[in-house]
From TrEMBL:
One of its GO terms (cellular component) is cytoplasm. Its EC number is 6.5.1.9. It catalyses: (2R)-2,3-bisphosphoglycerate + ATP + H(+) = cyclic (2R)-2,3-bisphosphoglycerate + ADP + phosphate. HAMAP family: Cyc_PG_syn. Catalyzes the formation of cyclic 2,3-diphosphoglycerate (cDPG) by formation of an intramolecular phosphoanhydride bond at the expense of ATP. Keywords: ATP-binding, Cytoplasm, Ligase, Nucleotide-binding. It comes from Methanothermobacter tenebrarum. GO terms for molecular function: ATP binding; cyclic 2,3-diphosphoglycerate synthetase activity; ligase activity. This is Cyclic 2,3-diphosphoglycerate synthetase. InterPro entries: Cyc_diphosphoglycerate_synth, P-loop_NTPase.
Length: 462
């Protein structure tokens, strides 16, 4: 027998009361639905009574009013969901009481409470979270793509490994394998030739778990996903199976790594969220940016330098984060490349996914810190035709191809460079805390790891 769906309805005074009552009764007469209560969220045009008691008497349901009829009672909605342990919040309101922004605010609250937010032509469901991990864990997720999530994940994994927590990474990517794939970054030597060999076998050898294995030298498990919903769920993924494999391997701590703005559907003890200061403010402050930010125990703000983000914008983002998630530590960072091998006195062709606007800064950094000569650059690792054109333009001047392990780094950049007789050196991206911040990034990451371990063992205690 199908379980009764406990529903809270959002209603307003812009609808004639008998019309609202008819809508509620239409819902309530369905045999699998139990309308528990109504929350009045504003509007006065057709409201003949402001008395909750009289309104409830007419509706024959409990009705809750906020303190200010001109403001959406967000906290009240949360309170009533909890009071009735509601499965669904059904929105029977409309413009002008609710606009798009207000509806996303409501959706964030409803999803945080683990309920469904539904309207006449929309439905937002809570994140899928399979509770399958048998080890302490964190999740690293992002608010978008190309904000440095994989670089931060690799950095965190390496740090956690160096601190003897014995971690593994389960990475979910759009180019991942059909069956979860274990890469023993702790045991095998991942060379350019080895990655080319994998590519010839049909493996996407620049997928995130290969990058994690190369940069962090730990065991990684590669998974795939397709599609990314607005909240963060995916259409298909084998990440749940990847998590189950993580239970079986020789690791004591699990890092679940997201993909773009998509979130692995596996429950973890704690969360680190990557926010790009280069993202449009509307994507951070509106839609489901706040939902992701509220998940965080630690927020690493990346790309905190001009021209990608002004100091004012960075400050505005930090203030917004502190406002909606005051318990999360926020650490502003920039990225700088770190070659995995010596490139001193070499003529270098540098391939990256960084934007063209920051290229002069990266070139100056590489030449100054690693004493090399950058003879050419390309920002087109994610665009194979343009990448090949750039390589053809500079390859005769270079001795070394320095490339990030992303996108077409193997099947185009590495292959073309090896074919031309160049050495290939892979480049990590290291998050560096900006000078103005007093925070210690390494300490903050380990604090989240320790909290995750405490949570895990507390949950096991009877």
């Amino acid at each position: 027998m199908k379980a009764m769906e406990k529903i809270i309805c959002l209603v307003d005074g812009e609808h004639y009361l008998p019309v609202t009552k008819a809508a509620v009764e239409t819902l309530d007469c369905m045999e699998h639905i139990d309308v528990k209560a109504l929350v009045f969220i504003g509007g006065t045009e057709k409201l003949k009574t402001s008395s909750p008691e009289e309104y409830a008497k007419i509706m024959e349901k409990p009705v809750y009013f906020g303190e200010d009829p001109h403001k959406i009672p967000y906290n009240l909605i949360r309170k009533i969901i909890r009071k009735y342990d509601a499965d669904t919040v059904m929105d029977l309101s409309d413009e002008p009481v609710l606009d798009y922004s207000k509806r996303f605010n409501i959706a964030t609250i409803v999803l945080e409470e683990g309920a469904i937010y539904r309207g006449p032509d929309f439905e937002f469901q809570p994140l899928t979270e399979y509770d399958v991990l048998e080890k302490p864990s964190i999740k690293i997720l992002g608010t978008g793509k190309r904000i440095g999530k994989t670089a931060v994940s690799a950095y965190a994994a390496r740090l956690i490994h160096e601190k003897d927590y014995n971690p593994c990474v389960v990475a979910m990517g759009r180019g991942g394998p059909e069956e979860p794939e274990i890469v023993r970054g702790d045991k095998i030597r991942i060379t350019p030739e080895y990655l080319i060999e994998q590519a010839y076998k049909g493996v996407h050898a620049a997928s995130d778990h290969w990058e994690d294995a190369l940069m962090s030298r730990i065991l990684t498990i590669g998974c795939r996903r397709c599609g990314g919903g607005m909240v963060g769920d995916v259409f298909i993924t084998n990440a749940k199976r990847g998590a189950e494999i993580a239970n079986e391997v020789e690791a004591d701590f699990v890092i679940m790594e997201g993909s773009g703005a998509a979130i692995p559907p596996v429950k973890t003890n704690r969360h680190i969220v990557i926010v790009g200061a280069n993202q449009p403010m509307i994507n951070i402050k509106k839609f489901f940016g706040p939902f992701r930010i509220k998940l965080a125990d630690l927020i690493i703000l990346t790309m905190c330098e001009e021209p990608m983000a002004t100091k004012k914008k960075i400050k505005d983002i930090e203030e917004f984060i502190h406002e909606i998630n005051p318990n999360a530590k926020v650490i502003p960072t920039i990225f700088r490349p770190k070659p995995l091998q010596d490139i001193k006195d070499k003529n270098v062709l540098f391939a990256t996914t960084a934007p063209e606007s920051i290229m002069d800064v990266l070139v100056a950094y590489l030449e100054d810190k690693y004493k090399c000569n950058i003879v050419g650059t390309t920002t087109h690792l994610s665009n194979r035709p343009l990448l090949q054109k750039d390589i053809e333009k500079y390859i005769n001047e270079a001795e070394v191809m320095l490339t990030e392990l992303k996108a077409a780094a193997v099947d185009v950049a590495t292959k073309d460079a090896l074919d031309a007789g160049l050495d290939v050196v892979y480049s990590d991206n290291i998050p560096i805390v900006v000078d103005e911040s007093p925070e210690d990034l390494d300490k903050a990451i380990i604090e989240v790891v320790d909290a995750a371990i405490d949570d895990f063992y507390t949950r096991l205690t009877p």
